[in-house]
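Honest question from a wet-lab person: if I give you the sequences of every part of a complex, can you actually get the arrangement of the whole thing, not just the pieces? Trying it with mine:
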Amino acid sequence: MSVRPNTRPAGHKPPFWRDRAKRALIFQLLLVAAVAAFLLYIVGNVQDNLSARGITTGFGFLSNTAGFGIVQSLIDYSSQSTYGRTFLVGLLNTLLVGGLGVLAATIIGFIVGIARLSPNWLLARLANAYIETFRNIPLLLQIFFWYYAVLRTLPSARDSLAFGEVIFLNVRGLYLPEPLFESGFGLIPATFILAIIASIALVIWNKRRHEATGKRLPAYWISFALIFGLPLLVLVATGVPITWDIPELRGFNFRGGITIIPEFLALWLALSIYTASFIAEIVRSGIQAISHGQTEAAQALSLPRNLVLRLVVIPQALRVIIPPLTSQYLNLIKNSSLATAIGYPDLVSVFAGTTLNQTGQAIEVIAMTMAVYLTISLLVSMFMNWFNARVALVER
Amino acid sequence: MKTVRWLGVGIGILVPTVAMASTLETVKERDSVRCGVNAAQPGFSSLDDDDQYRGLDTDVCRAIAAAALGDATKVDFVPLDSVERFTALQSGEVDVLSRTTTWTSSRDTTMGMNFTGVSYYDGQAFMVASDLGVQSAKELDGAAVCTQSGTTSELNLSDYFRINGMTYDPVVFDAPEQSIAGFEAGRCDVLSSDASQLYAQRMQLADPSMALVLPEIISKEPLGPAVRQGDDQWFNLVKWSLFAMLNAEELGITQANVDEQLSSENPDVMRLLGQDGHFGEAMGVNVDWAYQIVKQVGNYADIYDRNVGADSDFNIARGLNALWSDGGIQYAPPIR
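Yes, you can. This is the full assembly:
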């Protein structure tokens, strides 16, 4: 057997510190170990100091009785509930104002953003004035404005504004009749879901048919009629199995029905209007980023104006709009923590405010609160990134 | 390496602080007492026209500074809201918390702090709009109640309404200015807080006669200064600063006559003013500590009358806060 002179002796590998990949791995491991040790040290140090100062630690407090009232709760809550329950109540209230805020801000933002580009001089100037006003006033002041300005103009409970003797508006909030569902009502949501499924099938079928034959039905209008018309039909057919709990004035306040507290309205208005001014600018920049040649080319193909917008301009504009839009959604959700200034019972007010104070366990409570905001924000980012990837222009 | 040095600084900050210097040593070295107070509660702690803090709570801080450093002006006032006050004390941001804080068992045992005494006996009450026609708290079923977050008021409210079989809507603000604004705007029928605070807030209304404070007192609210656990020397000093003011009132030593009293033959007076014995030195401060308190700040009657009593806008009667010998429950152990 002949051995070629240039090969290394069999079984001889370079020492691991000469191997670039292994060296990199070792450094990574060392760094992770150092960070972990540092974190462990901090946690241990905090625990030592807390116990040395006689401060209770741990999450046992979550099962203790809270003992305080909360004005708005989406789930059953009484002062006999636990601190853990206050966390849920606060979290849901935050999600409620955040979710509805995102929805309203998006709608207002898109309308104002498009209005700003309108050839109508008055409309464009009004949209511009809206943006420049609300974008440049600090949010906290706007919240105070909506809260106190609106509160002071509303009448007291006894002189409520009544709308048809079923809806009442006063300084304590907006009182709406609450629907109470009787047996047999289950049919209506069932029809509703069925109609949605049928509509989706219709849209897909219509799209295929359009591609194959060039013919198309007004699928969206048909779906709309299905989704709203069918349940309504069933509702009438089953004899309207709903009774209404109508609010009435008893003692100081209205009882019964659904109450929308003014703190919620003020916070929701302020967050939506403030964030919408930023979204409007994002929408405008997104639309203006699409070169006018695209529109002209589409028109040259004799596409109708609404299809030019829907098929050519908006899909491309969304690419530009969505990443900064995500930031605005995140801002809105985080800004909702200003609720505590006007007494809306959100997570920060209820849990990081009252619960923290009653239990004194600042580190646990603040850590939980931060984890919640981080989780919500990451989930929103994840969703928006997924959506962004979907609408992104596929480069060929 | 630069990174390593910064890491070193970071670790230095986090080194356990268990073995730190005593609070009194720190205070002497810093030459000022850091005292956590209300930002704006007239009568107890609020800024006057010259940007000086005035009030019962702030005078307690000044008394502590007079005892510890011999100079009542050496106080750094740290305004705190009701949510951040305990963390500020626990973390060493302030040396003493004198901020209308109610002494309760859980605050004494689970929060790493100790109350040193009671500077003001208070109780929770209700303020309602006069035109509501309500005469008693028992008539408040279904009312919307404005209150402040992070206070014992929130718990008392819920207990009171439950025991009496009534319901209420809590509207919780994080600052007293906002809860009073909510009350004025008609957001709530009732404003609930400690009685002393309600009287002060009533004065702040555009028209004080639009509101009245109901007679019911629904809770015990002993308000007093608190310090961190684990430093008995500082705990004693804060405790006895308050006792010294009460003892001075009982012995008839006032800010006006304290210099004459120096020549008193009464053994209690001589012990209090440092003419006899070494009580101050045992506490780690000068022998004339109590003299300095009375001379520079006053006795308890002086600070009460000046801030919340007869010589103030509030004119709150001494009531429970009178000395035990005058029908109240303020009682200080003797200095001997």
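Two things worth pointing out. Chain A touches chain B through 44 residues (CB under 8 Å). The domain at 83-157+260-391 of chain A is CATH 1.10.3720.10 (MetI-like fold).
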